[in-house]
UniProtKB/TrEMBL annotation:
Organism: Porcincola intestinalis
UniProt entry tagged with the keyword Glycosyltransferase: yes
Domain Glycosyl hydrolase 94 supersandwich: 12-292
Protein name, UniProt field: Glycosyl transferase
SMART domains: CBM_X
Superkingdom to which the source organism belongs: Bacteria
Length: 810
């Protein structure tokens, strides 16, 4: 069952009922000001950091679901309704929500009145614009009222929801015509404020939630609206909000547009602190001046659209399969941008408080983002590397505002260092910019410790080399990619048994997965050494890589598949000898994509075992059989009920690893089959089962051992976005950036047909036509570049050439 449809021409998903199985959300904002908006106008805004600078308040765990947003109430006669349906939930005569690329648009009709609401964050301003157009579609004149409503968060979102003894006395606002300023914290020299304004003279306002909504009223039935209008309240402490009241009269057919602006402003750094508590309104006024007319708003919207259209031209495929086209050209790239911006901080499943930027997450997010805005990717790599420790280990997370490592979480996830090599290599393959390796980058943000970025990569590499266990495999530490595989924790106090308590690191527990990573990214490290002329270092690195490869093939092999790990007692994890959790997905996918066991036939065997033991109709499970009870020696993984999350869920993130592994072996049909099973566009028809948005990936789909098999959770912020983009764009469609140029190496189903990819690469545009007259699954036999046949599958870069017409025959 569907709850909407794709409008590919408009680059939109159109939701046709507000009653989606879960709120279906979108992200607004590309730079510093961000908003989350659901299909019923729920959501919130923040500046740079969803924890530290939260602008509006949201209630996670709310009843009804998804409460608090930016609401417009329309009071027409005795009916009050909202264009996004919530919070009044008044049944609408027509409802539509179009989530687009960086904007959302709501159209609703009730009793002959039409509301068109367009929400977006302009490219160059720190605000969200809501353009509300009301049209009288009835035969008679209409006179009605519009009320706007936002509730301010007192900045630090965690403090806001816990520290009531203080916060109920700090709230301050100021009203200046149509602009309501939220200035809590200004007094204590925080230097920032928020504002909510409309480009019309309001007929009333409120700034106290108790006055507008009412102390005991729900947001669906505000006191002020019920009792005849706003009260002119000026909040002092308690709950500051901003609400405008506007009286509108429309003749039949007439329209009127209002522009509402929710903004954020900061003072110049040299503001005098002894100045009185009167905010400097100049920055807000400058911003608002642009959005007094619809022309100003429309120009900003056109600029945003053009920006996105240009970005998405960076990779564009035209194939026979419209679902591939739609995902590759629009939604997958868009999700990659969002994961790059948000890491794992703010979604409807991440509260914006718990996690900032993840070290491993952000490194992987780069894979799907780097072709879009390489300069931003460059800066991100430097930010991430700056949180590394001198011994090569790293803070697992850092806060986006301060870019400092999060000491509460600390380090000890032993895959983290290698992801830095992976992200940097992806950046250099895309851009050819080896100079990034010479950037001077500190350890743990301590400027006194700056060394070239290349040295950081060396420390990453060496960290694995010097942290091996009894079999010669890498020590797992607190966990590897699988956060929940905590093999070094033994606390038997309930609730104290995960990564953070007990001995969380140890010399015995080992990870085969990190072994696979080391082989894969160790080769990149060796190439970078060689490029710097460090040939001995490159050779020594390759010796380590080969040694690890052998170790994985021996100590990491279980007979039919790769083992997952050894626990702190030296016992096997992910082996046929285990009672539960006999086989895990991660080492099968990663070892094979790293090329391990290909010539020995072990790779083929491992992937057949995946198909036999882990595959389901909704994707490949992370492990099987799921753990039926808690295991002290395994940690958090066994804390989940069977079939959920890391305990046997379909973790979408590592499905593409297996798909890529299949392409390494030339299995185009199987690779594509795996791609389709978790791909949102292919499962749109089962939205009532899948529940999460049909236009983006979710972190997890419940596995076959779960009660709700097929149900998605944790949509949007997942490494799945980047990895599926790598899989489909580089390994299936086969356009792969390499150090010396684009490599063309498709691996598709026999009947996939010919297709064309336009690809921006190092300042040039490539138009690559791939045909498959012999219906093979892998590889090309003829490559013609600008009319000249070249040998091999690499398109050589020719200085000064900005257009490449490429013809590849499979
Ligand atoms: C996992 C969760 C886990 C959390 C905290 C996440 O990465 O997906 O299952 O609860 O880490 O350890
Ligand atoms: O690898 C992690 C990731 O960092 C956060 N989400 C879950 C993954 C698997 O545990």
């Amino acid at each position: 069952m569907k709850f909407g449809y794709f409008d590919d021409k408009a680059l939109e998903y159109v939701i046709t009922t507000p009653r989606t199985p879960l709120p279906w959300i979108n992200y607004l904002g590309c730079n510093d000001f961000f908003s989350i908006v659901s299909n019923t106008c729920g959501g919130y805004s923040f500046y740079k950091d969803a924890k530290m600078l939260r602008i509006t308040r949201y209630r996670y765990n709310s009843m009804p679901l998804d409460s608090n947003g930016k609401y417009y109430y329309i009071q027409d006669g005795d009916v009050t309704w909202n264009p996004g349906w919530q919070p009044t939930q008044t049944p609408l005569d027509f409802y539509e929500c179009r989530h687009g690329i960086g904007y959302s648009r709501f159209t609703a009709k009730k009793n002959g009145l039409k509301a068109d609401l367009l929400n977006f964050v302009p490219l160059h301003d720190t605000c969200e614009l809501n353009r509300l157009t009301l049209t009288n579609e009835s035969e008679a004149p209409k006179s009605f009222k519009v009320f706007s409503y936002v509730e301010f968060c007192l900045w630090n979102a965690l403090d806001d929801m816990t520290n009531f003894q203080r916060n109920l006395s700090t709230g301050e606002v100021e009203i200046d015509g149509a602009t309501i300023y939220h200035k809590t914290e200004y007094r204590e020299r925080r230097n920032h404020y928020a504002f909510f304004s409309v480009n019309a003279k309001p007929d009333g306002f409120d700034t106290s939630r108790d006055a507008f909504i009412g102390t005991y009223s729900p947001a669906s039935d505000p006191d002020a609206i019920r009792n005849g209008g706003c009260t002119g309240s000026v909040a002092s402490g308690w709950y500051p909000v901003a609400a405008h009241e506007l009286h509108v009269i429309l003749t039949p057919g007439e329209s009127k547009t209002f522009l509402f602006v929710l903004g954020y402003a900061e003072n110049p750094k040299d503001r005098k602190w002894e100045a009185p508590n009167v905010i400097n309104k100049a920055p807000a006024r400058r911003l608002l001046a642009k959005y007094q007319t619809t022309e100003g708003a429309d120009a900003a919207f056109a600029e945003l659209k053009a920006y996105w259209e240009n970005l998405l031209e960076g990779y564009h495929v035209e194939s026979r399969d419209e679902k591939v086209n739609r995902m590759v050209n629009i939604w997958n790239q868009y999700q990659c941008m969002v994961t790059f911006n948000m890491s794992r901080s703010a979604s409807y499943y991440e509260s914006g408080i718990g996690r900032g930027m993840g070290f491993r997450d952000s490194c992987q997010d780069l894979f799907g983002f780097v072709h879009l805005i390489p300069e931003k990717a460059r800066q991100r790599i430097i930010d991430i590397a700056s949180t590394q420790f001198e011994d090569g280990s790293a803070y697992h997370q850092y806060q986006p505002l301060t870019r400092r490592g999060n000491a509460d979480i600390g380090s000890g996830f032993n895959d983290d260092p290698l992801w830095l090599i992976a992200g940097t290599a992806a950046y250099i393959r895309e851009t050819g910019d080896f100079s990034i390796l010479d950037e001077s980058v500190p350890f743990d943000n301590d400027e006194a410790t700056c060394v070239p970025l290349f040295e950081h990569l060396t420390r990453s590499f060496e960290y694995t080399v010097t942290h091996k266990g009894p079999h010669g495999l890498p020590q797992i530490g607190r966990a590897d990619w699988n956060d929940c595989l905590n093999l070094n924790c033994f606390s038997d106090t309930p609730g104290e048994s995960f990564q953070t308590t007990g001995p969380s690191e140890g010399p015995i527990a080992e990870s085969v997965f990190i072994g696979g990573m080391f082989v894969r990214y160790g080769k990149d490290y060796a190439k970078l050494c060689a490029h710097r002329g460090l040939l001995d270092k490159a050779k020594a690195a390759m010796t380590e890589v080969q040694k690890m490869e052998q170790t994985v093939l021996n100590a990491g092999w279980d007979g039919e598949w790769f083992l997952r790990a050894y626990d702190a007692n030296g016992q096997k994890v992910g082996s046929h000898e285990c009672e539960e959790g006999k086989i895990f997905i991660e080492p099968q996918g990663f070892c094979v994509l790293a090329g391990i066991g290909v010539k020995e036939g072990k790779a083929e065997k491992a992937l057949s075992s995946v198909e036999k033991h882990l595959d389901t109709k909704y994707g490949i499970r992370i492990l099987a059989p799921s753990y039926s009870h808690y295991y002290l020696n395994l940690g958090e993984i066994s804390s989940y009920p069977p079939g959920y999350k890391e305990n046997g869920g379909i973790f979408c993130h590592n499905n593409p690893w297996v798909s890529i592994a299949e392409t390494v072996l030339g299995h185009g049909t199987r690779a594509f089959d795996i791609y389709k099973k978790t791909c949102p566009a292919y499962i749109e028809d089962i939205s009532e089962i899948h529940c999460t948005e049909p236009y983006v990936y979710s972190q997890m789909v419940a596995g076959s051992d779960a009660k709700y098999f097929g149900q998605g959770k944790n949509s949007w912020l997942t490494g799945t976005a980047a990895w599926t983009f790598v899989n489909i764009s580089q390994h299936i469609l086969g356009i792969c950036p390499d150090y010396d140029g684009l490599r063309i190496d498709p691996c598709v189903p026999k009947d996939f047909g010919s297709y064309t990819v336009s690809r921006r690469f190092r300042g040039a545009m490539y138009r690559i036509h791939i045909s498959n007259p012999d219906h093979v699954e892998k590889g090309i036999r003829k490559l013609t570049v600008n009319g000249k046949e070249v040998s091999g599958n690499l398109i050589p870069i020719t200085e000064g050439v900005t257009k490449y017409e490429v013809d590849a025959v499979m």
